[in-house]
Amino acid sequence: MNRTTLSLIAGATALAAVTGFATLKTPDASGDDTTRTAARLPVERTSLLCPQPSTSDIADTAYTSFTPVAEGAGDRGKAELQAATAESDDSTDGKKSGGKAAKPVVRPKEPGKPATGDTSGAQTPALVGTAEGKFAPGWTVQETTDVAVGTGRGLLGTNCTAPDTEFWFPGASTAEDRSDYVHLTNPDDSAAVVDIDLYGKDGKLKSSVADGITVQPHASEPILLSTLAGDPQTNLTVHVTVRSGRVGAAVQALDDKIGGDWLAASTDPAGTLVLPGIPKDATSVRLVAFAPGDTDADLKVRLASPTGLITPAGSETLHVKAGMTAATDLGDVTRGEAGSLVLTPTSSSVPVVAALRVVRGKGDKQETAFIPATAPVSARATAADNSAKGSTLAVTAPGEGAKIKVTASAGSEGGKAVTKTFTIKGGTTQNVEAPVPSGLKGTYALTVEPVSGGPVYASRMLASTQDGVPGFTVQTLPDDRGTVAVPEAAQDLSVLLKQ
Q1: Percentage helix, strand, coil for the chain under 3-state DSSP, each rounded to 5
Q2: Which among 299, 304, 323, 416 is least buried, having the fewest CB atoms inside 10 angstroms?
Q3: 3-class secondary-structure state, position 477
Q4: Coil vs helix vs strand at 496
């Protein structure tokens, strides 16, 4: 057997399995490119980053890790979450510093069963997580924090995210009653250099300190947005770009009066966007959008309700000037029913990013959460950290109707997995009656898989009322990217093994 041949096959397969989706294009006889079908294999390694949860001394944070059982993932592997500083480089020769290794906050034992960990207080660091082998395909980690009082009090939640080089956050603010931080976490052994651009209603804000921000290896930097710009801005779009290296990024939005939550990044700029899972009892909904190109965008605003697509009175369209942030208040747009916002171009398609700020409650008993535009569930998506009560799964089929399969995993401390199927009518949003594991003990995960029909979008709301304040947090469910398409070149090379 030829050693070079083996190296090529292993290299191509490993590259696809680690770095993401890949297809191989080959020219046909006419000179046009055609995409050849590639085999899909489970990913072999996944990284996730969890931001520092809070600076409050009375904050309690729970971490829940879950990996769905994946066919073909093998029977070996490991996963763990530990402090971002646990492997910091303190030496001058580039070697890891000595000392006692930090104990992982979470270390799951098997796919199909959630693993949990918790921390408390203001000194909880950002976490860096790595999953390999059978734990990598579809690995999901939820960070949920409970803050009883103070700025940003309430229930704060976020999905820990993979490191990347670009992020969009419409819906941030530097208003006087807001304290918004962008958290940058570097998982690698070399420093990352990051630029942060802020865009308000009149365009890009001038700043002398937002470019060339250095994030040290295995470190996290929370940056207060108001220190990067001058006059307060109620509605901002934050654009994070990485010059060198890669980071995880999330915005923590804390309000003096109406609580706070994490603002996750919007999906990549697109002409049509879906923002799923507005709570049916929302008392205030604000849409914030940004057009990053050189062309204005005109968007048709519609609500996908349980009965179909409707147009909110007085908010039929939204005009977004190029390079400027636009916002519109939709009030209690859901009016007691499940709903998702669907944005489509009124004429020509112009890429935009968008997010919703959602408020529940009234008076001094209000709480805030955010819903960014998200990608559809193409194969599978997972929401971890569910309990028997307080979890709401919203699923939207903005176009053609769809059939989905929802699986409730085994419980973290006991219980058997349960699966149910649902039909979502086209143009609607349904708060589905998600299954609960039989004999549940502890927390569990919900996994959504499309079976047939058109694209579906999903989100999960966690709710917990304390002292009359309706605490809640919403996480969207983009595809978990648990498999990758292996370039057919690697498969073709296997023919040589028979020669």
Answers
A1: 5, 50, 40
A2: 416
A3: coil
A4: helix
Q: Determine the Cα–Cα distance for residues 85 and 295; give it in Å rounded to an integer.
A: 43
Name the nearest CA neighbour of 277 among 395, 447, 143: 395
User: How far is Cα 318 from Cα 326, in angstroms, rounded to an integer?
Assistant: 8
Cα(162)–Cα(265) distance, integer angstroms: 11
The C-alpha atoms of residue 49 and residue 249 are separated, in whole angstroms, by 9
**Residue 71 burial by Cβ neighbours in a 10 Å radius (0-12, 13-18, 19+):** exposed
Cite the DSSP H helix spans in 49-112: none
Instruction: Report the C-alpha gap between 285 and 328 in whole angstroms.
Output: 9
Please answer whether residues 111 and 73 qualify as being in contact, where contact means their C-beta atoms are separated by less than 8 angstroms: yes
- Compute φ and ψ for 491, nearest 5 degrees: -70, -40
Are the C-beta atoms of residues 456 and 377 closer than 8 Å to each other? yes
Please name the residues in contact with 391: beta carbons below 8 A apart, sequence gap of 6 or more: 383, 434, 446, 460, 461, 462, 463
Q: Sheet harboring 45-50: ordered strands across?
A: 45-50, 127-133, 77-83
List, edge to edge, every strand of the sheet that includes 219-224.
219-224, 178-186, 248-255, 260-263
Residue spans of the chain under pLDDT 70: 1-37, 86-101, 488-499
Q: Are 253 and 171 in contact (CB under 8 A)?
A: yes
Q: DSSP labels for 189-250?
A: SS-EEEEEEEEETTEEPP-SSSSSEEE-TTEEEEEEGGGT-SS--SSEEEEEEEEES-BEEE
Using CA atoms of 291, 293, 296, 302 in order, give the dihedral in degrees to the nearest 10. -40
Q: And the tokens for 277?
A: 């899972």
Q: Which of 131, 140, 147 is nearest to 82 (CA)?
A: 131
256-274: pLDDT as tens digits: 999 999 999 999 999 999 9
Is this structure's pTM higher than 0.85? yes
